[in-house]
Predict the structure of DOG1 domain-containing protein.
Amino acid sequence: MPKGQGIRRRNTKHYLDELLCAHQHCHEIREEDLKDLVSRILAHYQEYYDEKSRVAQRDIFLLFSPIWLTSLEHTLWISSFKPSLTFQLITNSVDGLSKDQIRRIDRSDEVLAEWKLALGTVLANVDELRTNAVLAMVEIMRPTQSIRFLAAAAQLQLRIRTLGLQREAETPESSGNEHVFL
């Protein structure tokens, strides 16, 4: 997946543009239209989390180190080292494993599979918590305030994205997918 083409990123640009425009002109827009915009944006975010959930069911680790994020965005992400990489490193770089070592590694791999399922549940719970927090705040605020809040969140996301892309453009050898091994 190329940079800038993450989960629903193409459609997100449209919603962010509409949101930022509404933010600039919210005092001129009817309250009913603002409510409609807030509903559509929240529906878009729900689509995003639904898509994210589908991706998580296919490859939970992809969401813990998404390939479409810039290196700056990765610094804000939850993790930079996929545990499954351990097994790939062993398979590709370690010779002379005994039968007992291979058996024990395979047993660890089974534990990892269970852990992946648990991570999927954690991710779904975090997304639900995030969504519920936003919905609760939107319920408390007037539509104009909701637009300002959602616009501020969108502007932050866009600034981080822009800074990350600028940083990577300045250092072309950086692919944004480096992992720190400790």
Observations:
- The first helix runs from residue 9 to 25.
- Residues 82 and 142 are 42 Å apart (CA to CA).
- Helices lie at 9-25, 31-58, 60-64, 71-75, 84-93, 99-140, 143-170.
- The radius of gyration is 21 Å.
